[in-house]
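Help: read this over?
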Amino acid sequence: MKKLFIMMLAAVSATASFAQNPNIGKEIKATKDYKAGMELYRQQESSLTQEDKAKAWQELYKLAKNVAEKSVTALQENKMAEVNYGDICNAIDAAKNFAECNPDKGAKAMEEFANIRPALINAANETNNVEEKLKYSTVYLSTAKDGDPLCGLASFFAAFASYQNKDYAKAVSYAKGALNDDRVKEQAEAIYLTSAGMNLKNKQDTLQYIKVLSDLDADKYFVQICTMYNEIGEKATAEKMVEEAIAKNPNNKFAYYMRGTTKNDNKDFDGAIADYIKVTEIDPAFIYGWYNLALCYGNKADNIQATKGDRSGRLFGQDLQDCNDAFQGAIKNLEKVRELDPNHETISNWPMQLRMYYNAVGQKAKADEISKMLGDM
């Protein structure tokens, strides 16, 4: 059995040795074509030694450089129609791989294209082809040194392309690299958050996403964080956040907004109304404060009808007065929303809500005016 094992081991070794190709450099050179050389390299890559890979990449770089020189010259002479960014990218990528396999000789290859590398950023910005955008930006990143001022832009383009490819994990990773670049910070943050929030399947996923929001800017994303805690049943955590935020800053409109939302959900309409009024006092231009205040008044009116009406739904005395007062509160605050958002661009459905409340109190003429505005009449 031992002899058989040794024979098998020798056979495996012989096979591995046979798979190596010390002539790979010559074979690639003989193709006289970068794409053909790359195809040959990929076919044999897994079996090549480090030394053979260095020879292969040296020849691939020479082939890529010969093709790219025409575009480099055109770029330097500002003949943009003659520039092929893909050829330049191939040469830089080949130089990088050559340098990884043979640092001494490869470093010289990298130096030859050092000044032309920023062209990849322009290429990534200009192309609408997602794969090209990803290739140009990632090759730039892979050849960058610490402190490179264009890495933020390259990271953003790579994040955008990854998001387009629905590779959300890579989109998050690349977007992180662009978050500190003021030129693209806002867009990178949007990609970062959207990608990190994709495919939230369970409570643990949501908690991890909450951490992403908190690490990024807990104050900025206060409402989203509280809302998500509520959605996964962590209501006590959300309420604690709200109370701590109010104690820390009595003028935190978002904290009052979230507390009002919780009270409204619990049918504490008067308490919710008080909190939403506080929101509008802190920031009179905050449309959602006025809108939610209006809806809360409407919810109060609906609740009175549901709990105080007789079998026919009729109200009498103080109950009728309280219901009408609540509807008037809803109307008053929706009219404020109308003033701030006349073309209903921020809140699209306030006209329908206002028309409904007008009808509830018998103001048909005003309800019809809304219908005409919406083109329903």
